[in-house]
Design brief:
2 copies of one chain form a homodimer. Chain A has 405 residues and is of the alpha+beta class. Chain A has helices spanning 5-16, 33-48, 92-107, 134-139, 145-150, 159-165, 192-196, 234-252, 288-309, 328-341, 355-359, 386-404, and strands at residues 52-55, 61-65, 74-79, 116-121, 181-187, 200-206, 208-217, 221-222, 257-259, 263-266, 272-273, 276-285, 312-321, 324-325, 345-350, 365-370. In chain A, strands 1, 2, 3, 4, 5, 6, 14, 15 and 16 form a 9-stranded mixed β-sheet that branches. In chain A, strands 7, 9, 10, 12 and 13 form a 5-stranded antiparallel β-sheet that branches. In chain A, strands 8-11 form a two-stranded antiparallel sheet. In chain A, helix 1 packs antiparallel against helix 3 (92-107) and helix 8 packs antiparallel against helix 9 (288-309).
Chain lengths: 405, 405
């Protein structure tokens, strides 16, 4: 049994037009008008495929294909939101390959023992509302529903109000429930599969992630008449931290990554010494103890930078997810599927967080990666060749069939 | 003859309410609704003081008190726009002390040979439209009217459209014309007068200023699965430049200042490696050759940072004003005025640009400084004690009388 490559390709193109950027990328922020349109499209396709569609309190969308027994479903999922000027593969591809796998079951009139459920999770990216993967976090019981509802975007708009506005504030409780297995196809977002000429990555787990936010408060002043000797420049201290964060991985682990992705200056004009700078720090490593060590180095770097420039600092380690090993049963199913298809594959760790990370807390979970050209993602240049997508989707289909037995 | 301290204090309080921030500062961006209201208030007061009010093509407002002869006027001026979350003294104080000086002439029914004109210049700060002092620049013939009209704010709104919207697109040509002298009272914005316990600074000139803008373009990518070895992070390069700019003055001149005041990151989210960063560089020194040397050091630092991180750079030195010496006749009048009042004063250089800088190209020009508490300005904490303001305003009044003879 195989998926229909042409149908899958058409779905990718069609859904990719919703929120498309002039340069061929995607801006489809969570719970925006574009997100709503993409959700509406998915719901329409899910209904056409005969799925029973439901929406939960977090706006997660589920489409169930009944099994022959009243058993917990095998869930295939991902997300349709994107980062600003992101690409057309991150998230969307997993949802569409899952839909294609289900359509293929329909084509062949295959019955499965366990039901199969397609899941679309709300606000996976964390680009608009923090933290990322907020809705699978609620489902896993890790994030309180009320906290998620009160998450605000940069304009102060609450997540729950946007859910309601776009018509996806569902009634179904967003709580843990019996799930046979959770399986997510996703782009690798790194360079390894492409470098090694492999179509499929059998994901063994996800690295540990720590997010911190930092604010330096110096003395806002006029850039002209304020002598260098009396300055307390929040941006100078921030520059020290950007350099220090960049240097952390080399001191601790070859697999560690460290990034300052967001930095906001106030008042942010040419002729004023920055009085306040806030910035984000993202640290990841496969080993929990390395993340802990990195946070300690960050603490030191921030204190040193603040002292050197005479500015105040507030550093908050506000989000942390330990490394997540995926379930041997799901990893095994993925591996057998790839092998039976004769697809070149390898085991791999995910450097990015995914909804599968939270799902792993409540059911056997796993992921399948397909390559990212030049390792790039979260950008308009994001691309995966259709040959690899086809291999990945077939691997997903077979692994799902395996798990529904 | 003396100014009326109480009346001046009331005017400062009243005008300061227009655009007041919750913490007692001022946000009154050029050509905003707040700027319009402040202009309307000034025009009303100028008319009450019997001045003939006119508005030129750049929205500069002039209020003329006739002299006994048809001679060029002595012009007293400053501005009413502010930076975001700025203070209530920068600009506004000069305009109100000028108004108070004219009101005092009226009180005493003093006639002057030369007319006296109060001038309010458009967009002095450069916080909304660049470059700063755009309207005196047009008046001096340095900036083309069309270029000024086409200056756009961050939202792409043109200066000329905002002039029209708020009703200050006047008909009078904005061109050089005969002016007996231009005199501007302003806050020092630096620490020297306060440190030395002096009420008045007799400004000898303005330092040279160079503004540059820089954009680094790296590779936007996901902060998780992208190994450190393949990164081209625009913010890391920018951090190098922030540090390098901070280090330039120590290498060249004790009077030099160097500032990165604006820095914008794209896409500016926690889990994306910054693909693009743009920032501003502000360099100032009393000696032109030092500014030139600083720009050369900046060029090197930018090239080095771009090479080290493997990112592209675009550096543009887009605005430069040479050091401006003020006219001995005006400096002398200021100094005699302060001495005759028995006010503690000193000669001083201005580290900030002012409209007086452009006016110096078309007439004898000078400035009077009053102290800034803790040397601070362009912030809500901006403050000048009323005793110093009174001394400064009286110095302005006497110097103006001297020049109108």
């Amino acid at each position: 049994m195989k998926i229909d490559r042409k149908r899958l390709e058409q779905s990718i193109e069609e859904l990719g037009r919703i929120g498309e950027t002039p340069r061929g990328g995607l801006t489809r922020l969570a719970l925006s008008d574009e997100d709503k349109r993409a959700r509406d499209q998915m719901v329409a396709w899910m209904r056409s495929a005969g799925l029973r569609v439901s929406v939960d309190q977090m706006g997660n969308i589920f489409g169930e294909r009944a099994g022959t027994k009243a058993l917990p479903p095998v869930m295939l999922g991902s997300h349709v939101d994107s980062v600003p000027t992101g690409g057309k593969y991150d998230g969307q591809l997993g949802v569409l390959c899952a839909l294609e796998a289900i359509r293929s079951l329909n084509d062949e009139r295959v019955s499965t023992r366990h039901p199969v459920t397609l899941a679309i999770f709300t606000n996976e990216e964390g680009a608009r509302f923090q933290p990322a993967m907020i809705a699978s976090g609620v489902m896993a019981g890790t994030i309180a529903l009320e906290d998620a509802y009160n998450a605000r975007d940069r304009n102060g708009i609450r997540l729950v109000d946007e859910l309601e506005r776009i018509g996806y504030l569902g009634a179904e409780p967003c709580v843990p429930r019996p799930i046979r297995a959770y399986l997510e196809l996703h782009i690798e977002q790194g360079p390894f599969l492409e470098e090694e000429g492999r179509s499929v990555g059998v994901v063994e787990g996800i690295v540990g992630i720590a997010w911190s936010r930092l604010t330096f408060t110096g003395v806002q002043d006029h850039a002209g008449p304020t002598p260098m000797r009396v300055r307390h420049d929040a941006l100078v201290a921030a520059a020290d931290v950007v350099r220090a964060v960049r240097a952390i991985p080399a001191r601790l682990s070859p697999e560690m990554v460290a990034t300052v992705g967001r930095l906001d200056v106030s008042p942010n004009i040419t002729n004023a010494i920055p009085g306040r700078v806030s910035l984000s720090i993202d640290l990841r490593d496969p080993r929990e103890e390395n993340v802990t060590r990195a946070l300690a180095l960050l603490d030191h770097a921030v204190t040193d930078a603040a002292r050197a420039e005479g500015v105040r600092c507030e550093l908050e380690h506000y989000w942390r997810v330990p490394p997540t090993p995926f379930h041997p049963e799901v990893v095994g199913a993925d591996e057998r599927a790839a092998q039976s298809l004769g697809v070149r594959s390898r085991r791999i760790l995910s450097g990015a967080g995914h909804d599968a990370q939270y799902m792993a807390a409540i059911c056997p979970a796993g992921m399948i990666f397909v390559p990212s050209r030049n390792g790039r993602s979260h950008c308009e240049e994001e691309f995966t060749p259709m040959d690899d997508i086809e291999h990945g989707a077939n691997t997903l289909l077979l692994a799902m069939l395996d798990l529904t037995q």
